[in-house]
Inverse folding.
């Protein structure tokens, strides 16, 4: 696969997990994800797109890590 952009995070521990989001030629999926999460309209080329997706990944990974630690 070829991607124009990618945001990913890795959890290392008992389970090694990589969570990633990738955009193809027009990045429309990345723009939609970031806009929906941030609650504001974003456009292709906005640097905030990657910040928003990174924060979304932080929340997902934080919830997962907390759940795994409590088991």
């Amino acid at each position: 696969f070829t991607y124009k952009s990618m945001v990913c995070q890795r959890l290392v521990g008992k389970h090694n997990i990589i969570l990633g989001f990738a955009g193809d030629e027009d990045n429309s999926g990345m723009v939609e994800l970031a806009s929906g999460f941030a609650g504001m309209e974003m456009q292709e080329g906005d640097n905030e797109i990657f910040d928003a997706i990174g924060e979304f990944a932080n929340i997902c990974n934080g919830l997962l890590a907390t759940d795994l630690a409590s088991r």
